[in-house]
Amino acid sequence: MKFLFNIFQSVRPGFEEGGRLRAFKPLYEAMENFFFAPGSKAMIAPFARDPLDIKRFMTMVIIALVPALAISFYFFGLRLIAMIMVSYIAGGAVEVAFAIIRKEDINEGFLVTGMLFPMILPPTLPLWMVGVGVAFGVFVGKELFGGTGRNVFNPAIVGRCFLALAYPAAMSGNWVTAGQGMTGRMLEWASAGNVDSVSGATPLVLAKQGQLVNVVDMFIGSISGSIGETSAIAIILGGVFLLLTRVANWRTVVSTLGASFVLAAVFHYNDPERFAPALWHLCAGGLLFGAFFMATDPVTSPITNAGKWMYGIIIGVVTMLIRNFTGYVEGVMFAILLGNIMAPILDEIVFKIRIGRLKSEG
Amino acid sequence: MKLKGGYNILLAGRPGSTVEVLPEPEVLYLPLRTKRFDFGDICVKDGQHVELGEVLAKDAANFSIPLLSPRAGVVRLNAAEGHIVLEDITKYQKQPKTEQANVPHVEHGSGTVRSKIEKMVSLGAWEFFCDAYDGNVPDPDEKPQAVIVSTVSLEPFLSRGDAQLKNRLLKFTRGLEHLQSLLEYQPMYLVMPQVRSSFASKVKDHLRGYAWVKLIEVRSKYPYDNFNILARRLKLKKDGGPVWCIKTEGVLATDRALTRSSPCLARILSIGGPEAKNPVHVKGVTGYPIKTILDKYANDDNVRVICGGMLTGQTCGEGALGIDSECRGLTLMPEHTEREFLGFVRPGFDRSSYAPCFLSALRLKHRESFSTAMRGEGRPCVSCNFCEEVCPAGIMPHLLHKYLYKDLIEEADEARIDLCVRCGLCSFVCPSKIELTKQFIEAQDLIEKEKEEARLDAIRQEKKRMEEARRKEAQEKGQEEEY
User: Fold this and answer.
1) Fewest 10 Å CB contacts: which of A185, A226, A241, A250?
2) Residue A57 at interface with chain B, using a CB cutoff of 8 Å
């Protein structure tokens, strides 16, 4: 790889102070450090550092998304790839623009947002909406707060929330029935204009009309819904991997799923006619995807363990309340946004208690 | 004893417990500055001939701790910056003294406590003592509230108790008796690793019947050997007086000073790290040329020499020529040079990481050849909470970092930044590569300085007030007398 390294070294002066392209230095640095591990050294103790860095940390999330990506590619087809590309390009442009304005490094957090965002959208959404949504999410959800690490809300959810409010028809009208057979829809371009592939409703919509979709179908994912959220098995597979690598915290996942499961069970027990069973709720909609991949975002979830438990319970409870008692069919998005707002407060409470305990020591 | 946090960094090159003797040096370079001491008070003249054990310099600020001459030779004061150089050592080398009669136990009632401690200070044994809370040399005149003796050494890599205690167990137990004779009623704790080995049971056998030694076993997890953490866990209050802390070499030095009345000159150092050819313990003296050691023990020229362990040590720069009097081991790390192509997506079968994000998680525990690389770019905190998980002091490094980032020193003080023991683990595990330990050390020093200033200020004002009151009184008296 000497060859590539030499290219980088030869164009480097252009990006240095005084070079013609010096404004684009963050972009250059990001590219160089992407291909070649940074050359910086630990000059003060400790004299060696853990091999894990933020790039690797974020890569783990992408790897965990692979099962869900693969299975949704089978169910929903080629369009998925186009949506991911648009999401990366539009969101990346905002990220790079802000890095240049701030004269800071480009943050790897965007690699995850850009991948997560298309996975929580309906498969027929016009591509320009994907671009607008991700740009809005990165801009308002992250950059306005000061970039990765300082944001209060999960940028992907902010983008989705914006689209859901601005284009409600496109966001809830056209769903694609999942592909079948050997190739599924892998060779199809299933868009809103493609009539034969567009179906009526997701399991949650059907449930409002008194129709319960089979849990086994929801477990495998052969149902209509947002791209990444349909297959419970693929999400659990990737999610458990994420928990094992400790990039996502198990407390958030357990408390979110536990709280919603318990609450759904209580509802179902009291009125089985009106409320769906707990297991059905667990597999329906974006609950699993939200619990494993969205709620666990370390930046926007509480940092303390006690805070994580409370945060998960809030998300689980609010999701079930919205699903069962409001006009909305799905509540995960609003529940996580609400959880994000609560996160700093929950942390603050735990900090207060812990500092009070520390004070009496020594 | 149960302690929280901690993490063992699996660094390659753990020194074995064999002890090699370094070849006799020709020249010694004795550094005048060490981590705690500054031997600014030089007691010899240039060109003077000194005997073995003669005082070369003293640290005036630290109860006149002496820098002793480890060999007989000729002093050169200006030969190397920051060092006293001792030349012509081979010329004056004497035959080693015949071994004295074996004294199995301490004779009680020989000398007062005060005279014993004075002897220890002048023979170079006192410098092995430190206070549990501030890490400085304790005041010889002050009575301690407790003594903690530790044979555990968990940082990669410092000279370990088992290497030092081989063939010296008798001296060690006698040293403990000496220490006990310095105390009145205060407790003495002996910290041992929680391991099952024939050597550990041998040590315990030797200590049988020493009812005044309270044995404590800690798990072998860095930094459970940290005196500050141990003292806190033993509920020794900071304002209850000093807590004397001594490691194995300190007990052996005490024994040497009080039984033999001879100076403590030779020490056992560890030489470890990925770049060490043959990681061992060696017996050497203060001022031993680092270059000679490197020629013999380092693999490569491109090596970072660290005086002390990897987590808390200091780089031995170009200027450092000899082993300083506080050094307990050299860690040799490969200097980072190669920039890996697509390093972050590699499977990482050979990487040993805190979080199981590499393929190495599937493999049995192995030691990695860490280099001095940062392994990543500096990024804002992503609140992963790893720093809090490893923190042995029970504080919240991520919160302190956020306070310090916003210059909220007072809040950091409230959140007990003073409990930080500077173990370096938070900086090690941080995936955002934030220099947490460095920030905390700076903030601690700043707060300490401010508090000291405030204290002095209060004293000054109190004095002023008293003086004014006195003047007023005198005036009134004068007026009365006039009447």
Assistant:
1) A250
2) yes
CB–CB of B384 and A57 under 8 A? yes
Residues ≥6 apart with Cβ < 8 Å to B442 = none
State how far the Cα of B393 lies from the Cα of A358, in Å rounded to an integer.
Answer: 10
Task: Write the residue in B232, B356, B375 that is nearest to A246 by C-beta.
Answer: B356
The ipTM assigned to this model is 0.91
How would you write the pLDDT of chain A (362 residues) with one tens digit per residue?
A: 788 888 888 888 888 877 788 788 888 888 888 888 888 889 888 999 999 999 999 999 999 999 999 999 998 888 899 999 999 999 999 999 998 888 888 888 888 999 999 999 988 889 999 999 999 999 999 999 888 888 999 999 999 999 999 998 888 877 877 777 777 777 777 776 665 656 667 888 888 777 788 888 888 888 888 888 889 999 999 999 999 999 999 999 999 999 999 999 999 999 988 888 999 999 888 899 999 999 999 999 999 999 999 999 999 999 999 999 988 888 899 999 999 999 999 999 999 999 999 888 75
CB atoms within 10 A of CB B292: 16
Instruction: With beta carbons less than 8 A apart as the criterion, state whether A32 and A5 touch.
Output: no
Separation in Å, CA B281 to CA B19, B23, B158, B166, B250: 5, 14, 9, 12, 17
pTM: 0.91
d(CA B365, CA B373): 21
* Residues B210 and B176: beta-carbon distance below 8 Å: yes
The pLDDT tens digits for B215-256 are 999 999 989 999 999 999 999 988 888 999 999 999 999 999
Gap between the Cα atoms of B350 and B10, Å rounded: 11
Q: Which residues pair with B267 in a beta bridge?
A: B284
**Most B-contacting residue of A5, A8, A32, A50 (CB-CB within 10 A), to test interface:** A50
CA separation for the pair B366, B354 (Å, rounded):
13
Question: Would you call A41 helix, strand, or coil by DSSP?
Answer: strand
For the segment B7-51, what is each residue's pLDDT rounded down to a tens digit?
Answer: 999 999 999 888 999 888 889 999 998 888 999 889 998 888 888
Pick from A1, A38, A149: CB nearest B380: A149
Q: Choose among A70, A294, A79, A67: nearest CA to A176.
A: A79
Q: Identify the closest residue of chain B to A31 by CA–CA distance.
A: B342
Q: Are B397 and A73 in contact (CB under 8 A)?
A: no
Give the residue carrying structure tokens 């007398």. B481
In chain A, residues with a C-beta closer than 8 Å to the C-beta of B398 are: 303
How does DSSP classify residue A53? -
Q: Where are the beta strands (DSSP E) in B211-370?
A: 213-218, 243-247, 266-272, 280-285, 303-307, 314-315, 329-334
What residues 298-317 of chain A have any CB closer than 8 A to a CB of chain B?
298-299, 301, 303-305
* Residue ranges per structural domain of chain A: 54-176+202-352
First to last CA, chain A: 55
- Three-class SS of residue B261? coil
Across the interface, do B415 and A299 touch by the CB < 8 Å criterion?
no
